[in-house]
C-alpha cells in the first residue's frame, strides 16, 4: 500500500504544472548568482499592467515551459517593472532601483526591452519591443550565439 501511495504521489508531482521562472528584482544579487553559476543575466524591462506587448511577451515566451527549462540552466532572470496602476506600485526603494537600471540599460524607455548581460553587467545583446519575428527558438538561438561569442 505504501508503494502505491508513494508512486501516486510521485506521478502527481510529475504531472503538476511547472511554475513560471523566478524573476529577481536586484541586479547586484543576480550578478553574484550569475558568477557563481557561470550563467548570463536576462534583464527584462516591463510595464506589467499597461504595456500590451510586455504582457504578451511574458505570457507567450517568458512563462512557457520551454523557456523556463532553458532559463533554469542558462540564465539568471531580472525584471525591472514599471507598473502604472496605484494598486501595483512598487516600494520606493524598488522603483529607484528600477529607474537606475533604466538609466543604464534602457535610456530610451522602450517597453518591452530585454537585455542580455554577462555576470559583470556588460551588455551582450538586446531586444527592443516584441517583434513578430521574435520566437522562443530565435531568442534562445540569439542568447546561445551571444554566449558563444562572449
Automatic annotation (TrEMBL):
Q: Would the keyword ATP-binding turn up in this protein's UniProt record?
A: no
Q: Which InterPro entries match?
A: AGR/TXD, Thioredoxin-like_sf, Thioredoxin_domain
Limits of the Thioredoxin domain: 14-148
Alphabetic keyword roster: Signal
Source domain of life: Bacteria
A Pfam family cross-referenced in the UniProt record is Thioredoxin_7
Q: Which residues form the signal peptide?
A: 1-20
What is the protein name for this chain?
A: Thioredoxin domain-containing protein
Source taxonomy = Bacteria, Pseudomonadati, Bacteroidota, Cytophagia, Cytophagales
Amino acid at each position: 500500500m505504501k508503494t502505491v501511495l508513494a508512486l501516486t504521489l510521485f506521478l502527481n508531482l510529475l504531472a503538476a504544472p511547472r511554475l513560471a521562472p523566478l524573476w529577481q528584482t536586484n541586479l547586484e544579487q543576480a550578478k553574484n548568482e550569475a558568477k557563481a553559476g557561470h550563467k548570463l543575466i536576462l534583464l527584462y524591462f516591463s510595464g506589467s499592467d499597461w504595456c500590451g506587448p510586455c504582457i504578451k511577451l511574458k505570457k507567450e515566451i517568458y512563462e512557457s515551459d520551454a523557456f523556463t527549462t532553458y532559463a533554469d540552466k542558462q540564465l539568471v532572470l531580472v525584471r525591472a517593472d514599471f507598473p502604472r496602476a496605484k494598486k501595483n506600485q512598487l516600494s520606493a526603494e524598488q522603483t529607484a532601483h528600477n529607474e537606475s537600471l533604466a538609466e543604464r540599460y534602457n535610456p530610451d524607455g522602450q517597453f518591452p526591452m530585454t537585455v542580455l548581460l554577462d555576470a559583470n553587467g556588460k551588455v551582450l545583446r538586446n531586444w527592443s519591443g516584441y517583434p513578430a519575428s521574435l520566437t522562443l527558438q530565435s531568442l534562445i538561438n540569439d542568447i546561445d550565439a551571444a554566449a558563444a561569442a562572449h
